[in-house]
TrEMBL record:
The lineage of its organism: Bacteria, Bacillati, Bacillota, Clostridia, Peptostreptococcales. This is SH3 domain protein. Pathway: Cell wall biogenesis; peptidoglycan biosynthesis. Residues 159-280 form the L,D-TPase catalytic domain. It comes from the Bacteria.
Length: 280
């Protein structure tokens, strides 16, 4: 099987509280050091529940809930000193910039940007750096083929993936000679629970892993959406020999999109890097 190398710019996150840096992807593994709250760590690798990071020359794992969340600006945004439009500006952030969200307070997000701390009106942030509702979503939840063709969705490859978070369905399309899209598959899927939602927006396949997991679980045929978000199989035990959670059509994941194992394998084996993904 062809191996895919993932290219990703350096990504930094911030700890939300005093956080244990661990030797393994387990809350029972040895603690290398305790990282103070609001510390900057470099992300080496990202998975649904754990991040492999570098901090002060030490390499280890942090549970994802203890790290900031990545968002993108979709327009010029003023970073302010307090969560108020009347507070002093700290700096202006250009469109498509990465910010790390520490917390959300009402309509405002407490963020870090280029080592500067401040507040952004949350409306100006998105998961993909694009204006919300960039497409006409009239048919997204009722006729996905009409949605992709009416909007003339583009993909650099011969495939297109869409995921309907409302109905919990993932669609695979194949490009016709005239550039229109033909529906190949429609699959039930499980998406992120309300506290850890699946990201929304337009993304591009950016690598894959045959499996990942911890001492508790394993998932197979993982295709990266962005960062720690993947399409992957239902849950197996840590050895990958027995299914421990095969539920589909629900909102209960940590943000990834779970599929039946054979469907996750199809994406893993057939959908090329750079393929467009639309999730809403």
């Amino acid at each position: 099987m062809k191996e895919y190398k993932r290219q990703q710019q350096n990504l930094y996150k911030y700890t939300l509280a005093n956080t244990n840096l661990r030797e393994e992807k387990s809350t029972s593994s040895n603690v290398i050091t305790v990282i103070p709250a609001r510390s900057k760590v470099q992300v080496i690798e990202a998975e649904e529940y754990w991040y492999e990071v570098l901090y002060n020359g030490k390499r280890g794992y942090i549970y994802s809930d203890y790290l900031s969340k990545t968002k993108y600006t979709w327009t010029d945004v003023t970073l302010r000193s307090y969560p108020s439009a009347e507070s002093n500006p700290v700096t202006t952030i250009p469109p498509k910039s990465i910010v790390q969200v520490l917390s959300v307070n009402g309509d405002w997000s407490h963020v870090m940007y280029n080592n500067q701390e401040g507040y952004i009106f949350s409306y100006f942030l998105s998961d993909d750096g694009n204006l919300p509702k960039e497409y006409d979503f009239k048919y997204f939840y009722t006729d996905m083929t009409k949605f992709v063709n009416d909007n003339k969705i583009k993909s650099p490859t011969t495939n297109l993936i869409t995921t309907d978070l409302k109905n919990k369905l993932t669609y695979i399309f194949e490009k016709n000679h005239d550039g229109s899209w033909n529906l190949l598959y429609k699959w039930s899927c499980t998406v992120g629970k309300p506290s850890t939602p699946t990201i929304r927006g337009t993304f591009y396949v950016s690598g894959r892993k045959p499996y990942f997991g911890s001492d508790i679980y394993r998932v197979k045929y993982a295709t990266r959406i962005r960062g720690s978000y993947y399409y992957h199989s239902i849950l197996f035990n840590a050895a990958g020999t027995e299914i421990i959670d095969d539920r589909l059509g629900m909102a209960l994941s940590h943000g990834c999109v779970r599929l039946a194992t054979e469907n996750a394998m199809w994406i893993y084996n057939n959908v090329l890097d750079k393929t467009t993904i639309i999730i809403n």
